[in-house]
Structure formats: C-alpha cells, structure tokens
What does this fold into?
Amino acid sequence: MASRLKYYQEIGLEHLQDCDGTIEFTRKLNDLFDVLNGWHPTEGIRQGSSDFRVMKEGLEWLDTGEQQLVGGHITEQKFLAKTPVDGLRVTLKSTVDLRKYLLTEKKFKYVLTRKFNQDPLERFLGMPARLRVEITTQICRQFCMCTERSACTRC
It folds into this structure.
C-alpha cells in the first residue's frame, strides 16, 4: 500500500502530494505486522534477529507520537486514537517479553508470533463454548500445554 501511495504521489496526483506521513505510517505498521504474524519457522523470531529491533522501534514510535500529541506538536488526526495505541503497545511489550523469556530462559530456537495473536486464542478458547462445555481449570491447563508446544520449538 505504501509503495502504491508513493507511486501515485510521484506521478503527480495532486491530492496525494502531501501524504508522506501516511506513507511512513503505513510502512511502520506493515513492518510491525510482518513481525507479529510470523507463522513459519523461517519467519520466527530468533535470538539477535532484526525483528526485535522492529518491535523496540515500534514502541519508541508510539511513545514519541503520544508525546508529540500531548505536547501539542501534532493533532489527533495525525496520530492513532488512544485505544489502538494502547492495544498495540500491550501487544508489542508482551511479544518482546515472551520472546525474551522463551529464547533466553527456555532456550527455544525461535518463536512463532502468529501463535500469540488473538485469532488462534479465540479459536482455541471458543471451542468449549461451541461444544457447550464449561471452561474449567483442565481446559486452561490444556491451553498452556498447547501453546508451549506449538508457539516455539527447541529443535
């Protein structure tokens, strides 16, 4: 999307001449979502990978944007609303913390971040409801075992 916006800007579409901020914003979010959607071992976050840097820069970007908003340097239209900022911050911080724990303390080879996303969690936790089964401690234990086995590998 960012490349397409840049292309149309460069060929002279008048209403896209002032969209550099949108292009930068789109690229930043695209990079973050690429990191957060790793589902194949080749896309897994490994010790020393640039993915960790992308997440840290994403957190800094959110902090800077909020500081500029609070300081009156930008308007609300030039930044994300508070709820998406908070959600993205929680996602990035928890992914950074999980990555550190699993790669450093548990010695996993890589982490598949897509396994932490909301959709897999909703599908798994929604199974008992679809089967009309009460969520019990046993289901929670099974969830923990499944995520430990499928989100990472020691191979």
Observations:
- The first strand starts at residue 110 and ends at 111.
- The mean pLDDT is 82.
- The chain has six helices and two strands.
- Residues 14 and 102 are 49 Å apart (CA to CA).
